[in-house]
Amino acid sequence: MNLSQLLEQVCAIVREDGERILAMRHPEIYTKEGHANFVTSADLASQDFLVERLTPLLPQAHFFAEEQEDNVLAPGYNWLIDPIDGTTNFMRGMRASSISVALTEDDRCVLGVVYNFYTGELFSAVRGMGAHLNGAPIHAACVPLDQTLICVGTAPYDRGLMEGSLEVIRTLYASCGDLRRGGSAAIDLCCVAAGRADGFFEARLSPWDYAAASLIVEEAGGVISSVAPYTLDFQHKSPVLAGSGEAYELVLRAASEAAGKGLL
Question: What's the predicted TM-score (pTM) here?
Fold first, then answer.
């Protein structure tokens, strides 16, 4: 399989999907399990479109998608899809939402695409071939710790993680340059890959939230991981940390301290 050719096809599909999402002016809104957890008719339409268009590209692949019931990561190839990452941003017109598509082969991500359909920025990576933004190479930054920007998520769907999240955020804020809360984990992670930010933390993400961006971060020279006793296995929800240089070490230390207290 030629992953470079496959990437071109996936990028074209994702861009078309973004146009379709933006054309939906007043999508219906539904609630899901958890605090302030929503899905819209645009999420559902996006996922249906992606499944329909991706299936012929790799007929043997399975789908592991956010708005799909009974999700199981199967042996072999799997498409991990978040049809709109940042649904609340999308609902409120915050203009920071993305389509995230990853391809894994036996639990190893080999292709990733994250598309901010508001800005037209498409982040992509194929394993071993570097990370790109609209076709141009991107690289993680390395700046002094007191100048770093660290993106954080607040795990809003599980308020049981509030104390752990705030403890990590407090530790980060004491040492970094400043914090950012964007509302789309996939975009935040891509900002780390592009050198716009230096670190990332969120106490609980699902595999489709971070799968595509994880490869983009790695191929840009950054590090992405979970924190013990969790692992990033594309099967379960877990804390997610990312970054480069001193920023990653700070995020890892802050998350490890919180996990050691049983807060994550």
Answer: 0.95
Together in a domain, 111 and 11: yes
Answer yes or no: do 52 and 134 share one domain: yes
Can you tell me which residue has the tokens 């407090």?
A: 170
Q: Which domain holds residue 100?
A: 3-138
User: For every one of its 264 residues, what pLDDT tens digit does the chain have, with 9 covering 90 and above?
Assistant: 799 999 999 999 999 999 999 998 888 887 766 655 678 899 999 999 999 999 999 999 999 887 766 667 888 999 999 999 999 999 999 999 999 999 999 889 999 999 999 999 999 999 999 999 999 999 999 999 999 999 999 988 888 899 999 999 999 999 999 999 999 999 999 999 999 999 999 999 999 999 999 999 999 999 999 999 999 989 889 999 999 999 999 999 999 999 999 999
Residue where one domain finishes, among candidates 78, 108, 138: 138
* 3-state SS, one letter per residue, for 205-250: ECHHHHHHHHHHHHHCCCEEECCCCCCCCCCCCEEEEEECHHHHHH
Q: Do 95 and 201 fall into the same domain?
A: no
Which position has the token pair 């920007």?
A: 149
Count of structural domains, the chain: 2
